[in-house]
Fold this protein.
Amino acid sequence: MSKHSVQPLLVSAPAGAGLPQYYQGPPTYQTIAVPIEVHPVRYRRSPLRRFLVAFFVTIGIWVTLKTLLVHHIRHGHEDWDWYIPSDMVLEQCVSGSAWGTSAAALTGDFSAGASFEIPLSVDTVLLLSSYRKSSFFSTHSMSGTLDVTTSDQFSDSAKVIIHSFDGMRTDGNIRVCLMTGTDGKIGVGIFRKGSWWDTRSATFMKITLVLPATAALPQVEGLEVDLPNFSINVGNLKDTVDFKSVSLKTTNAAVKVDSFSAARVLLQTSNARIDADSLVSADLTLKTSNAPITGTFNTSDSLHITTSNSPINVAVGLESNNKAKPTVLIMRTSNNRLDAKVTLSTKAHMGGRYSVLGRTSNGPLAISIPGSPVESELHLNALTSNAAAEVKLHNTYQGAFGVSTSSQWSARVTRLDQSDDDSRHLHFDSNRKGEVGGSIFAKEGNKGLGEVRVRTSNAQAVLFV
Ligand SMILES: *[C@@H]1O[C@H](CO)[C@@H](O)[C@H](O)[C@H]1NC(C)=O
Ligand SMILES: *[C@@H]1O[C@H](CO)[C@@H](O)[C@H](O)[C@H]1NC(C)=O
């Protein structure tokens, strides 16, 4: 993964790298000081004259610099103004008036547009990133939306369509380029830089990535999106390119997925929610902060769900087909509730190894296991504080359990099926206020097959077996 990962936006430019030479030091004051000290005779000039001299010297320096700069740009050395990732080569750029020209055809007055065709092959890693040159005076801020959709046209190329909504004002500070790199990397980069005359500019962009319908194209290596401040909407990608690895990163904006699958998936944002109707991946990571994570997820290897100060509400399918290592689900939040329905399955119809961790604080926790193969091995840890904790196991569960809370609260283990159909033996090792331990098993040998721990404080803890 890291091999293909896009350079993070903020780390990319070394501190101070954005400063053109002539920004160094405070040139105006130093230059003015020289004539005054070298010619003490003129020391008695009136303050007004001294001021005027300083003023015109300053203007002079400014004009000279400006002329030099214009000369510089006219001679095509403007790349020095932009941050360009070192492993990428820019192929074709749209900026300035070109960006505006294609505009009119596409939409209304204040929108400018560009579009790019990107050929796909087996080893393609399709990139969509924004890069920023840090500037001494201003940071041009950018936000927008990315929609990932499918076309019903058969083809072996993807299309990226970009609209910019900021009038023509900041066009010179943004350009969009087709870029290629090593290891099959190809994609569209949005480059922006700050300017010293426009310190509050902001651009809103609407980007659409259209993936082709494919009958023939086999699995494509990867899709990597790194667009801070862009909300990301992924449509139903069932009948389109099958990416081996998908990484969608943003900040401060939501990520929403209708449905797709890939061997490896990373969805990452901050301060905004992650939502998926159906996401299937062997190796799946969902990460945000201060916002909920909701949806239906299936995995056969590992699923990590991380947020903070917000609820997690998920339905998860865990499939275990590897005897050597368990299928792992890790859910973490804080100061809010955690609700999860976790269905365990295996292709073998029996057995399977699963490891589940659910952790929050100051909020209720409820995890249920509505389905599980017989003879499966489940390790489950459910932890919260100052709120109720409840875990409902499936009636195939065999193994040890421990339920605990503060000593003045109740910790309970209750059988869901009170009839004689459940042939498992329920055995308690300890059963006192605030703490219950024991095991449940159909065969003596399975007493320690799985292990379930439920823990909270200052509220009740309940385990249904
Ligand atoms: C994201 O948006 C915020 C608010 O508009 C802005 O301050 C910030 O600079 C933006 N970040 C980037 C990376 O553009
Ligand atoms: C995903 O898991 C659910 C259980 O939560 C299951 O019903 C469904 O068939 C699974 N879907 C896929 C595509 O594996």
